[in-house]
């Protein structure tokens, strides 16, 4: 399978394919035009990655409100995240595995926002008949799934990996708070967390942000609980993540032209 066929399977433009895999745009053009050929190991790597992404797709855009779709229960109508997520699950009427921020809510690592709208999950594409639903993938290994209070959700390691894969469209406040809690609950260590090599550098940056934000909150709020200070750190999280998203190193030297 050549590069063009791989890209077509994903339904990506050359620009989208370039951004998805960190390959310079001109390199993609040269490969498809036959001016250059990617090394065999690169083709093999891309085939594996694309095969995985076709099963568990990385989202590129957030869904816009569609008046033709049905609405899910509002977060603001419930006291606590778990009752709301149970209502969402019952409304969907099918087996779903909550992901990202919703998974963190199931874990008790993040309280969410009163105006929560986006629902991240693994399940059938039919779940997207409701406004706000983002289906990350149709299948997920049982090894990556946990259950609590009758809700199924991705475990913490998978949640971190999904956050890094979808960082371009994800509000990183939730995962940053959760990483901070994890760090201090595990003897100031991330040793039990493992991420894919391509996300390692970004994970280290995010981990440093989580540690720094916890320390700042700890001193500024006289040892109050993290949940009591999340509203004070929201802008800080968003600013840091906004900056990090735009200060990525040029990956051009990683790919042969």
Can you characterise this structure?
- This protein has helices at 3-10, 14-21, 25-33, 40-55, 81-92, 100-107, 156-165, 173-185, 200-220, 230-246; strands at residues 97-98, 119-122, 133-137, 145-148, 151-154.
- It starts with a helix and ends in an 11-residue tail after the last helix.
- Helix 1 packs parallel to helix 4 and helix 9 packs antiparallel against helix 10 (230-246).
- The strands form 2 sheets. The protein has a 3-stranded mixed beta sheet with strand order 1-2-3. A two-stranded antiparallel sheet has the order 4-5.
- The model is unreliable at 216-257 (pLDDT under 50).
- It has 257 residues and is mainly α.
- Residues 3-38 form the HTH cro/C1-type domain.
- This is Toxin-antitoxin system, antitoxin component, Xre family.
Précis, in short:
This protein has 257 residues and is mainly alpha-helical. The protein contains 10 helices and 5 strands.
Name the descriptors:
single chain; mainly alpha; disordered C terminus; 7% strand; 434 Repressor (Amino-terminal Domain); 257 residues; globular; two-stranded antiparallel ribbon; 3-stranded mixed sheet; 5 strands
* Mean of residue pLDDT values: 78
Q: Structural class from helices and strands?
A: mainly alpha
Distance between the termini: 19 Å
Question: Number of helical runs?
Answer: 10
Radius of gyration: 20 Å
In N-to-C order, the SSE pattern is: HHHHHEHEEEEHHHH
What does the largest sheet look like?
Answer: 3 strands, mixed
Q: What percentage of residues falls in helices of 4 or more residues? A: 40-55%
> How many β-strand runs?
5
Write down the domain tally: 2
- Strand order within the widest beta sheet: 1-2-3
Shape: globular
Q: Would you identify the regions where 5 or more consecutive residues have pLDDT less than 50?
A: 216-257
Chain oligomer state? single chain
Strand residues, percent: 5-15%
């Amino acid at each position: 399978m050549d590069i063009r066929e791989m890209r077509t399977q994903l339904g990506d433009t050359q620009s989208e394919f370039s951004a998805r895999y960190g390959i310079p745009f001109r390199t993609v053009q040269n490969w498809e035009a036959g001016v250059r050929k990617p090394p065999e190991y690169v083709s093999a790597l891309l085939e594996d990655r694309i095969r995985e992404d076709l099963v568990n797709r990385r989202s590129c855009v957030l869904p816009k409100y569609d008046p033709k779709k049905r609405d899910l229960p509002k977060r603001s109508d419930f006291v606590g995240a778990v009752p709301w997520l149970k209502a969402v699950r019952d409304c969907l009427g099918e087996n779903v595995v909550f992901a990202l921020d919703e998974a963190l809510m199931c874990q008790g690592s993040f309280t969410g926002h009163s105006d929560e709208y986006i629902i991240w999950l693994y399940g059938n594409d039919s779940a997207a008949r409701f406004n706000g639903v983002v289906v990350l993938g149709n299948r997920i290994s049982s090894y990556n799934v946990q259950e609590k209070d009758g809700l199924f959700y991705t475990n913490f390691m998978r949640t971190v990996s999904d956050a890094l894969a979808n960082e371009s469209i994800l509000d990183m406040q939730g995962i940053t708070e959760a990483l901070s809690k994890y760090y201090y609950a595990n003897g100031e260590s991330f040793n039990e967390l493992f991420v894919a090599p391509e996300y390692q550098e970004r994970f280290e940056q995010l981990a440093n942000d989580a540690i720094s934000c916890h320390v700042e909150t700890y001193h500024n709020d006289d040892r109050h609980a993290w949940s009591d200070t999340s509203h004070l750190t929201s802008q800080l999280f968003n600013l840091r993540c906004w900056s990090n998203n735009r200060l990525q190193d040029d990956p051009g030297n990683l790919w042969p032209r």
